[in-house]
Amino acid sequence: MKRKKLLHKLADYLNLDQRTLKTKREKMKIILKQLREKEKKLQLRSDHETDETKKLRLTKELDILRAQRLKGIAALKGLK
């Protein structure tokens, strides 16, 4: 290998912070996607629910889930 290529490899090994941040961002994206899917399912269940107490419980759970997802999105933007 040439000198430049070796130096680039060495810099990559020394730059562990960027790698760990990248993996953390990727994991957060996966979790946020799962939360979005769960939010959609809860919204559908809430829309089709006829019992008012169950609908209220689902709505509260949906609000909490939505707030957590928005907090996660803000944290992800902060990592960039």
Walkthrough of the structure:
Helix 2 packs antiparallel against helix 3. Helix content is 91%, strand content 0%. It is rod-shaped, with a radius of gyration of 21 Å. The two termini are 33 Å apart. The protein has helices at 3-14, 16-48, 52-79.
Secondary structure elements and pairings:
Blueprint: H1 3-14, H2 16-48, H3 52-79
Helix pairs in contact: 2-3
Outline of the structure:
The chain is mainly alpha-helical. Helix content is 91%, strand content 0%.
Number of strands: 0
Kindly provide the radius of gyration, computed on alpha-carbon positions and rounded to a whole number of angstroms: 21 Å
In DSSP terms, counting alpha (H) and pi (I) runs of 4 or more, how many helices? 3
Mean pLDDT: 87
Low-confidence stretches: none
Biggest pleated sheet: none
Going by helix content, strand content and strand pairing, the class is mainly alpha
- What is the beta-strand fraction? under 5%
Helix content: over 70%
- Shape, per Cα inertia axes: rod-shaped
H-E order: HHH
Q: Which features would summarize this protein structure in a list?
A:
single chain; 80 residues; mainly alpha; rod-shaped
